[in-house]
């Protein structure tokens, strides 16, 4: 892997150790990528290898005994894993949210839930379920899609609309209110629906929760931090490391294409080949720089005691925009390299076919869609963003 780093790394720091283990795991999961894809979920031993890297504990604070990696560091770890396999990177990204979610729970509740800082949380945050208000909690039922990593999760978090005596509960703006609900994985039925174009190994199946009581302490919204402070105790923190996946895949495709071309020799002197490789490298470098520059500026403001509101509007909009751009650019890079390598791309021993399908599938996620453009554009013009949380604006506790 090209050793591109977002900044200096202390050789004995928790970040350096986790990053080193992630980089060491990447070639192993690359060798098993076909098996992972055919399995349509991560094999148990791959989950344990991931756990051993420390990736699932990245978001836990030092007060928990965790490494408390900042968002730039988390992104770089996810990037290193995704260089090996996109589904592994995707599940690492999802599973590492446990420590981030813990900050929105009362400390005693979070400690009781996360008895280990290597536990995995999965689920869908968009409110598609139904939660009936009861004394001291809610009765939760529903069916959700896209439960990435749910086959190896310990906890499942799900968005649901609120009801009382069968009637919708409204928020202060008169809209149907919703919250997020944590339930043990044992209370969840997984429905094996994950037959997809790409990211097959992520096991992002539908799941069903039927009439499960959720105590008030395990009900959260992203506008209330109950247990933490600083750069990671922010409403959109769980979206920040997502660009590591497309960046890792794009880098892998670029390295593979260049190495294959040099090894074969016959295309090295071809003008089209040279221009395509250079264009893709330029797009990758600019895209990666934009992601890390936006994250770095955000971290500087938040670690200095500021808030997201202290960011200039253009800088605040750069966070979701650079994230979306990373997904779209990765797909563009892989597509151009796939075409450049022509028929050699279509055979199964080549990873190009899988990368093409993986990047096409990940671009269907909400963070890579036009809704992000609308939200950022509306925010810059003083309008109403349709996905306010992508900008860290609370009042929309949703992440696809």
How would you sum up this structure, described in words?
The structure is a single chain. The chain is α+β, with helices and mostly antiparallel strands. It folds into 3 domains: 14-113, Acyl-CoA dehydrogenase/oxidase, N-terminal domain (Butyryl-Coa Dehydrogenase, subunit A, domain 1); 121-220, Butyryl-CoA Dehydrogenase, subunit A, domain 2, CATH 2.40.110.10; 237-391, Butyryl-CoA Dehydrogenase, subunit A, domain 3. It contains 12 helices and 9 strands. Strands 1, 2, 3, 4, 5, 6, 7, 8 and 9 form a 9-stranded mixed sheet that branches. α8 (244-264) runs antiparallel to α11. It is globular and about 75 Å long.
What is shown here, in short?
The chain is of the alpha+beta class. The protein folds into three domains: 100 residues, Orthogonal Bundle (Butyryl-Coa Dehydrogenase, subunit A, domain 1), CATH 1.10.540.10; 100 residues, Butyryl-CoA Dehydrogenase, subunit A, domain 2, CATH 2.40.110; 155 residues, Butyryl-CoA Dehydrogenase, subunit A, domain 3, CATH 1.20.140.
